[in-house]
Amino acid sequence: MTALTDLFGKPKAIIAMAHFPPMPGQPLHDARGGIQAMLDAVGHDVEILAGSGVDAVMFCNEGDRPYRTEVGPEVPAVMASVITELKRDLPIPFGVDILWDPRSAIALAKAVGARFVREVFTGAYAGDFGVWNTNPAETLSYRRRIGADDVKLFFNVTAEFAAPIGAREIGLTARSAVFSSLADAVCVSGVVTGTGVDVSQLRAAKEGVGSDVAVIANTGVRPETIGQMLDIADGCIVGTSLKQDGITWNPVDPTRVERLLAAAADSGQWAPSRPEAQLAAPHR
Cβ of 141: how many Cβ atoms within 10 Å? Predict the structure, then answer.
């Protein structure tokens, strides 16, 4: 049984992103709209996603460009405030992600009752943020110290916007994340947000970890590719393709959500978590 089966009671899962606008102090923050504008924007997306049939939503500070490997306390504080308000009416599980700060993400998960965290927990990278290192031993010890052992950890083993300093074959990287760093699931990404996953990398990661560990297609999943992704992977995390005009920073478009989920159901690899959800016919 994989982490996804444990979380969702089914072998294949689709997790939809609920992106936060830029936080206070960040270059693109809407100071006039403030926290209420964030609540309105994220609430709009969550309301659509919660009734669509997706298996979970994942809250993320996607708007905080340029991303940081260590965020200030305002980020988990603001996210916790908004998530606590929205989770009251959320009928499906949820996870969190803080780019790219694993400890802050785990602390946030503990505070709001999130079931899982997605982060880059392992590896050393060079990229758009400079030289980027991780400390999985300290991060997992921190999870233990704050009593968050029940929070599942989804390891992104192909960091976006960066390249590994010591490159290894993706199957070995994925297997090592599970064996030495105790990953609950492994995520495989494209080179940047919204770009498709390399199918050969996805397949190699799955072969590396075996059937007992979930592998997730983490970026760039679209209606025309979701069947292929789910044929290899145990799940997909979807954000950009659900947005108006397919632009990451736009609000969620309910028609795009319906099309993607209908394509997933039509592939025979996945069924909606809520049987009453109405799925539109996929575009072919």
Answer: 10
Predicted confidence (pLDDT) per residue in 232-283, tens digit: 999 999 999 999 999 999 999 999 999 999 999 999 999 997 656 655 433 3
CA distance 52 to 39: 20
CA angle centred on 169, ends 174 and 225, rounded to 5° = 70
CA nearest neighbour of 117 among 137, 102, 127, 128? 102
Query: Rounded to an integer, what distance in angstroms lies between the CA atom of residue 50 and that of residue 191?
Result: 28
Using a cut of 0.90, tell me whether the model's pTM lies above it. yes
Residue 38: other Cβ atoms inside 10 A: 23
Helix, strand, or coil here: 106? Answer: helix
Q: Where are the beta strands (DSSP E) in 61-138?
A: 94-97, 116-119, 124-127, 130-133
Burial of residue 130, with CB atoms counted within 10 A of its CB: 0-12 exposed, 13-18 middle, 19 or more buried: exposed
- Inform me whether the pLDDT recorded for 121 exceeds 90: yes
235 phi and psi angles, rounded to 5 deg: -165, 170
Given the DSSP bridges, would you call strands 130-133 and 124-127 parallel, antiparallel or unpaired? antiparallel
- Does residue 222 come out as left (phi exceeding 0), alpha (psi in the -120 to 50 range) or beta? beta
